[in-house]
Design goal:
Number of helices: 25
Oligomer: single chain
Distance between the termini: 63 Å
Low-confidence stretches: 479-556
Largest sheet: none
Structural class: mainly alpha
Mean pLDDT: 83
Order of helices and strands: HHHHHHHHHHHHHHHHHHHHHHHHH
Radius of gyration: 33 Å
Shape: elongated
Helix content: 55-70%
Length: about 550
């Protein structure tokens, strides 16, 4: 009974304090009443709830008590009783209504409270943060993004807690802020620039998934929209370059760096198309990666060559001149001189495509590389030198590849009839799905062979006309457009999904089968590495595992 009486007395006193403050014309003269409210926050559950409402209500009238009032409210945020915590959280935005100088601190506190386990409490935090974002989006975002930086300077004992807070803040920004950017980011130009700067400042320690999240958000801003000038598109490429570590020496044993380069170059391709420079990526390919290409894991070579092919479409003349010698060198490795050797048609398709597009911008470079006699009137034509051996070697290799491509096309066409018969005889959905994949692989293989034949034919001329437009559609691009996803293949064949592990690991239809069957059988198994249903679908992001530094979150 005594406890109930004390509780009633505390509540009664709080109401008296509140009434006097409400009635007072000059509330600053009722300092003792406000002090009584602050003190009552140490009382019963009901007293704490009532104090949590009254402290922010009269806060602006007693600046000299602001520290005490805020400290008491912060204590109530972590009270044992959830009703007290929820009531306290709801009152936090009121501190900033007339005293905005406290907004950054309140946002910081609310950010830490995002780890609340109770739904009701977490909802209260979300609503409070949204209220403050609508009041002052610039200050609120700045305070939130401070939690996305590195936690290395935090107390090591609380490292896991800071990590958890960081994750919750990121999810809040992703789920609550980004979808409302049109409403929140006003004035648009100023706020889009501000949030872009915040994102850029916090990209030094992010996972691959987080980087993709931020890049997708930046791309959605009007600042970088389809009508944005080239310099803004270049800004996005520079952000990607920063994540790719293009200033670092390439370590062929660092699988993470290889994966990161492939993924980042792929991410940059749409911006090259919009006019941004690919110079740094091209230079890194030519100087760092291609010279050690033979040491790169087999399962990554095709991904690199696909990126190289697509990148060549947008390379500037000076970049083309830099990259062409490396492309021709790789072509000679892949274009065998004997018909019994195993070859990879898809890699040859990539390199021929790159050769045409790069050479179309700086044709006379091929004079010394392939023995052509292209006249541009420049000293670099080198027409007085004898490169006949280069021409003979290159065109002989082309002829062999053309013969092999024609033979493969014939083999695949014959196989199509067998696939059709098998489809008619198939009884289960699994059998039909497997046959459908085989047909898709065969169709993709035919596209690859046809592309090789179309690109090789003009290269026999002494002064060829290089294909510098998009007349040739890369085989995996076409397969992406026509593939029909099913329940078992959607995850690997639809646009934007990851490619599955490269068939070079020896599994699936592309596994190498040596022994009886002769050259044709070996070619069928190895020629179209990377053209299975799992690898012809979108170019997919992903694949990076991290920098191996920072917070151990699987960094770039």
């Amino acid at each position: 009974m005594a406890g109930a009486a004390d509780d009633s007395s505390d509540i009664e006193k709080l109401y008296e304090f509140g009434e006097r403050l409400n009635e007072a014309k000059d509330k600053s003269q009722n300092k003792s009443d406000y002090e009584g409210i602050i003190a009552a926050a140490n009382g019963s559950v009901k007293a704490k709830q009532l104090a949590a409402q009254m402290i922010p209500k009269f806060f602006k009238f007693f600046p000299e008590l602001s520290d005490r009032a805020l400290d008491r409210q912060m204590d109530l945020c972590v009270d044992e009783d959830i009703a007290v915590r929820v009531q306290t959280i709801r009152g936090l935005p009121l501190f900033c209504k007339d005293t905005p100088e406290h907004l950054e601190k309140i946002v910081d506190v609310l950010a830490q409270l995002l780890i609340a386990g109770e739904n009701k409490e977490r909802d209260a935090v979300h609503k409070a943060l949204m209220s403050l974002l609508r009041q002052d989006v610039k200050t609120s975002l700045t305070a939130l993004f401070k939690h996305l930086g590195s936690t290395e300077d935090r107390n090591s004992e609380d490292g896991s807690a800071w990590e958890s807070i960081r994750d919750k803040v990121l999810y809040f920004i992703r789920d609550k802020v980004f979808p409302l950017k049109e409403e929140l980011l006003k004035p648009k130009d100023e706020m889009e620039r501000h949030i872009t700067n915040l994102v850029k400042q916090n990209l030094h320690d992010v996972t691959g998934a987080e980087f993709i999240l931020f890049m997708d958000f930046l791309k959605s801003l009007s600042l970088f929209g389809q009508n944005a000038p080239v310099e803004r598109v270049q800004e996005l490429v520079e952000i990607i370059e920063g994540q790719t570590d293009l200033d670092a020496q390439f370590d062929v044993s660092d699988v993470d760096h290889i994966l990161r380069f492939i993924s980042c170059l792929e991410m940059a391709l749409p911006f090259f198309k919009r006019g941004a420079s690919s110079n740094k990526f091209v230079s890194y390919l030519a100087k760092q990666i291609i010279p050690v290409f033979d040491k790169i894991p087999e399962e990554r070579k095709l991904d690199l060559l696909k990126n190289l092919a697509e990148c060549s479409l947008y390379a500037k003349p000076q970049d083309s001149r830099l990259l062409l010698p490396s492309v021709v060198q790789l072509l000679k490795i892949y274009m065998v001189r004997r018909k019994i050797e195993e070859i990879n048609f898809t890699c040859i398709e990539c390199l021929l495509y790159a050769l045409h597009h790069l050479a179309s911008k700086t044709p006379n470079v091929t004079n010394s590389l392939c023995g052509y006699k292209i006249v541009t009137g420049q000293p670099s034509d080198r027409l007085g030198e004898d490169f006949s051996e280069q021409y003979k070697d290159f065109t002989e290799r082309l002829s062999i590849i053309e013969d092999l491509a024609k033979a493969m096309n014939k083999k695949l066409t014959q196989g199509m009839a067998e696939h059709n018969k098998a489809m008619t005889a198939a009884k289960t959905e699994e059998e039909k799905e497997a046959i459908k994949k085989q047909k898709q692989n065969a169709t993709a293989g035919q596209r690859t062979c046809n592309n090789i034949l179309a690109m090789a034919q003009p290269l026999h001329s002494k002064a060829p006309s290089f294909i510098g437009d998009q007349k040739i559609s890369l085989s995996w691009k076409e397969v992406t457009k026509v593939a029909v996803p099913s329940a078992s293949t959607t995850a690997t064949t639809t646009i934007g999904k990851k490619r599955a592990a490269n068939p070079a690991n020896g599994s699936g239809a592309n596994a190498t089968k040596k022994g009886r069957g002769g050259v044709q059988n070996q070619l069928v198994n190895r020629a179209f590495e990377g053209l299975s249903g799992a690898t012809t679908g979108g170019r997919g992001r992903g694949g990076w595992r991290g920098r191996g530094r920072g917070r151990g979150r699987g960094r770039f």
